[in-house]
Amino acid sequence: MRAIAQPNIALIKYWGKRDTEQNLPAVGSISVTLRDLYTAMQVEFDDVLERDELTVNGAGDNSMLPRLSACLDRVAGTDRAHARIFSDCNFPIAAGLASSASAFAAATVAAAAAADKQFTIAELANLAGQASGSAARSILGGFVELSNRDSGIEVTSLRAAAEWPLNVVVAITETGPKAVGSTEAMEISRRTSPFYSSWVEQQEHDLETARSAIADRDFGKLAAIAEHNCLKMHSIMWASRPPMVYWNSATMRCLQAIRKLQGAGIDVFFTIDAGPQVKAVCLPEHAVKVAAALSATDGVVDVMTTAIGEAARLMDES
Ligand code: PMV
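^ thats the input. predicted complex w/ PMV below
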């Protein structure tokens, strides 16, 4: 069975876990699922296999296999047959572009179908979320909120992509994998950052502001709260011990380029995850200008423009 999922970019971020065993987030989050970046994941269970096998973009690659095998165990049960897994991804992996979100959302949907199991959206989100917190949001399309519940998490669609067709321009400033993975980095922040507890306390306010901005399609309001929430998350990392600075000098130059565009009346705002890439969210009519400004920024190696995309889904019935 083959499934496709798009990565998502958080506008109100998840940083920190309330339960590391279950991989439950300490805070809710709001994201947009991206249309033109994808991971397609094929899962075939086969009794003759002696172990799970993973092929990534056409080559054998075992780096993600332990997490993927654990994900398949949760979806299909530990008594499942071993699996042949083929992953195809059209953007840099583990570089702060949410490749784990699309990978585990696609793996969850493909494995559920391959094991002939029916799950609700909430169940799929919890299964994907146990592998990677942000993957739960890629189960749905458009603007997605992830909320904490006593029993786990819940994902809801706040708006379909077509109802507010924003664009996201991704500026790649470095293609290598990140130095510290987000799971480890979040734990360092939770244990050591003096700002961590205020982050958790303030998150409901930021979520509420973003929710109402999305309901009203108020770009300025969403821009202000998303930039604030992003910089707050990075402040936690910077003040952690050891400090974690995911930015490089081109990241900063992209922020300056975006401030300049804003000064010229362009509707655009930035967000940055656990990596040096900058994501500029803008109105579609400004995407060409935003992409041109970021392409011309020193240190930017690639720029991709994408619309907001759809939910994770099966690609065929094979
Ligand atoms: O899902 P993870 O464990 O890769 O963590 C994602 C963390 C951020 O991308 C920085 C924020 C978010 O909400 O996606």
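The pocket of PMV is lined by residues 10, 13-15, 29, 100, 132-134, 182-183, 273-274 (CB under 6 Å).
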